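Now for my pick.
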Amino acid sequence: MSNISGTVPTNGFVQKWVKEVAAMCQPDDVYWCDGSEDERERLTQAAVQCGDLIPLNQQALPGCYLHRSALNDVARTENLTFVCSEDKEDAGPNNNWMAPAESYDKLSKIFAGSMRGRTLYVIPFLMGPQGSPFSKVGIQVTDSVYVVLNMRIMTRMGKIALDHLGDSDDFTRCLHGKADLDIERRFICHYPQDNTIWSVGSGYGGNALLAKKCLALRIASKLGHKDGWLAEHMLIVGVESPDGEIHYICGAFPSACGKTNLAMLVPPATMKGWKIH
């Protein structure tokens, strides 16, 4: 029986799913994330102590850390990424397909007992503002503290997501585990009919942060097709002038064209007072 810490939500659907995952993965501990600042500080220090994070120069770059994934785990593995729809045609022309029963069976065997000696973190997260009818809730389970710390940057994480979800069963079930990081046992599988994502064998961000490509693009494409809206690969960035006026840019740009570079831009000295959000 795993040791449980953190505040367990009252939502019975969430409790049931996490119990099922814990029974399969067999972690030593289960920790329910709340998204608090105190939690961020504690987990950051724990990640530093175990070597997952390396502090950079805190005078020049306060709050910045280096994380290195494994040598065989430095990029998204599209060839091992599958859409596991019941009908192969529903996977779309640009996705790999695997039958749901086959993939569940294959990945279950890899996940079985894979978190022994580790902590299973439960991350409730919200894609979009609280209260918006367009926002989506996910519950990600992971054995990576790096994933926890990045999910709190990328999403609205913790109590706010559970408050938005209420007693509903309408959430994406996101299971991630590093397992042994063996590329021969690495799979990223999406189950649109179950609103579920399973990713195993990788700790690299694009394969492990399941709110990003997995939910916001692949699962959302199916949800959008069903409900009449569009999921697109985009950025939203705010450019603030020295007088405090913010202009927002929405860009539907493909991979490797500079979305992240633009969002991380530091204005030069000649544009003193401008900020990028």
Remarks:
- The radius of gyration is 19 Å.
- Helices lie at 12-25, 37-50, 100-111, 145-154, 159-165, 205-208, 211-227, 259-263.
- Residues 130 and 164 are 6 Å apart (CA to CA).
- The longest helix spans residues 211-227.
